[in-house]
Design a protein that fits this description.
Layout: H1 2-19, E1 23-29, H2 31-48, E2 51-57, H3 60-68, E3 74-78, E4 86-92, E5 97-101, H4 102-108, E6 114-115, H5 117-122, E7 127-130, H6 135-147, E8 155-157, H7 160-168, E9 173-176, H8 178-183, E10 190-195, E11 203-208, H9 215-223
Parallel strand pairs: 1-2, 1-3, 6-10, 7-8, 7-9
Antiparallel strand pairs: 3-11, 4-11, 5-9, 5-10
Length: 230
């Protein structure tokens, strides 16, 4: 029942905007991409076009479901896996990176700016891994299993920033996306180190195959060509 009322609220809002001749776009993304990647784009687009924008956050599964339920016009998310009814287009391709305390970095390799996954897995320092239900978590899990099938991380987190915070506290080594790592670039207690193993951290555009896209949404898609790597 709550979902029905929510959908009716979305419908009423959109109806009022259409009556007023106002264009509206509903965009979803994981929190770190909404903050670091999309805010400059949506800000500029809203200034140059007569439209309003809903920028909501959620994990990959939630964003896919919102697209299927016609609660979003498009989503920008990690990974390429999509359920039936959703198309994806690759926007950016990056590799995951390492965050660890300076003490842990010194213990592993104080003079190197890069570390291999095998070095991290063979150390006595615990690993902070992403939940396997997350696209990046699954890629990290597969990469770890290829090196050490029975390896068990010290922590599993659903939030990328939670992993970074644990690393900052010296609780282990976090392997995260480059945008989360960028957020902690000036953190005095953390070292940002390149991972020599290329663990895919792609960013994709997701759209519904069922629900038509508005003119404003199509116009916004053109601005995605301005996306740059962190």
């Amino acid at each position: 029942m709550e979902k029905i009322y929510r959908q009716l609220g979305h419908f009423q809002t959109l109806t009022n905007k259409v009556k007023a001749g106002h264009q509206h776009i509903r965009i979803g993304a994981p929190p770190v991409l909404a903050t670091k990647l999309l805010t400059p784009l949506v800000s500029e687009f809203a200034k140059e076009n007569a439209c309003s924008i809903d920028l909501t956050t959620g994990n990959h599964a939630e964003l896919c479901q919102a697209l299927l339920d016609n609660e979003l016009d498009l989503a920008i998310t990690f990974g390429r896996e999509t359920p039936a009814g959703i198309s994806h287009r690759l926007l950016l391709q990056q590799s995951m990176t390492v965050l660890l305390s300076h003490e842990h970095h010194k213990a592993l390799s104080p003079v190197r700016s890069s570390l291999s996954l095998s070095t991290l897995l063979s150390s006595d320092i615990g690993l902070i891994a992403l939940d396997e239900r997350d696209p990046l978590g699954m890629r990290l899990h597969d990469a770890i299993a290829a090196h050490k099938e029975d390896f068990a991380p010290t922590f599993r987190v659903r939030s990328y920033s939670a992993g970074a915070e644990l690393a900052k506290l010296g609780s282990g080594i976090a392997i995260v996306d480059p945008w989360t790592a960028q957020q902690y670039a000036l953190e005095p207690n953390l070292a940002r180190v390149t991972l020599t193993d290329n663990i895919d951290c792609s960013v994709s555009l997701l759209t519904s195959d069922v629900h038509p896209m508005s003119i404003a949404s199509r116009q916004f898609l053109e601005t995605l060509s301005d996306l740059t790597s962190p």
